[in-house]
Amino acid sequence: MTQQAGATAVAHTNIALIKYWGKADPVLNLPTTSSLSLTLKEYYTKTQVEEADVDSLLINELPQDAKRVHEFLNILREEVQDFPPLRIISTNKVPISAGLASSASSFAALTAAVAKFNNWQLSLEDLSRLARRGSGSATRSFFPDFAIWEKGHDDASSYATHFDTPDMPIALVVCKISGLVKKVSSTEGMRRAQTSPNYAAWVEESARQLVNMEDALKKADIKRVGEIAEANALGMHNLNLTAKDQRFTYFNAQTMQILDEVKALRQAGYTAYATMDAGPNVKIITTLNEANAIKESLAKRFLKIQFDIATPGPGISYE
């Protein structure tokens, strides 16, 4: 196929309400559990690719180590079709490596841009499967609103699809406690978590929670969505604390203070439930009508933390 002169794709980050936390196959990025996420309008990655002499990467105009993307591009070359070296120019509207899913939007945008550059006619599911090799969570960033990544049993069966729901006024209050690169990467965190004696039980519970989450979403029951998501997230982080091999936590003192405040907000009558990924930042699941009041309440108490409101976002797009 003939390549284009360049191609640009935009992918939005997603936040898992039912988590991906553990690999059944680290090479293929096959997960131990299926997961479900919400794509966010406010956070995204815009990636442009163009032919070059060697694979290279710029993020927000700064040169980066291209080893990881070079290895991923070689996978695409082997899996689909060979293509020339690429210069990757990426603009990230989300903190990198801080638990706000920057790798999800980054690898989704990169996969889509490379496919467009090469004129590959691939379905969203095919793109999702390919992006999984770069970042597991990237599987879900091709779809608007809610997506389910089925764990599958091999390379061909592990990809995400859109999960259709009724319109629901769901929102997240994002508590940006830190934008610093995390000390324990997601890949290493998962490896350690899988040494927890509680891991097998968490996998079983996660499967039940996914079924319950699907039911709650179909009924547009935001309160139940929040309850299930918070339980799933706390279970995930408990694995980190109980890992036999180098236990750890992504939480810091402010994370714990925000979690306490979420409980207080519930007691005050607000719809407020916490979810956290691989980082200290907390996302509060609430309704669109309550999001501003929660944001303002927290901003008065935590002057050094930035609070944003995130809403359901679109799937992959091209420029």
TrEMBL record:
Residues 11-160 form the Diphosphomevalonate decarboxylase-like N-terminal domain. The keyword Transit peptide does not apply. Its EC number is 4.1.1.33. Keywords: ATP-binding, Lipid biosynthesis, Lipid metabolism, Lyase, Nucleotide-binding. GO terms for molecular function: diphosphomevalonate decarboxylase activity. It is an enzyme of class 4 (lyase). Residues 173-303 form the Mvd1 C-terminal domain. Belongs to the diphosphomevalonate decarboxylase family. PANTHER family: DIPHOSPHOMEVALONATE DECARBOXYLASE. NCBIfam families: mevDPdecarb. This is diphosphomevalonate decarboxylase.
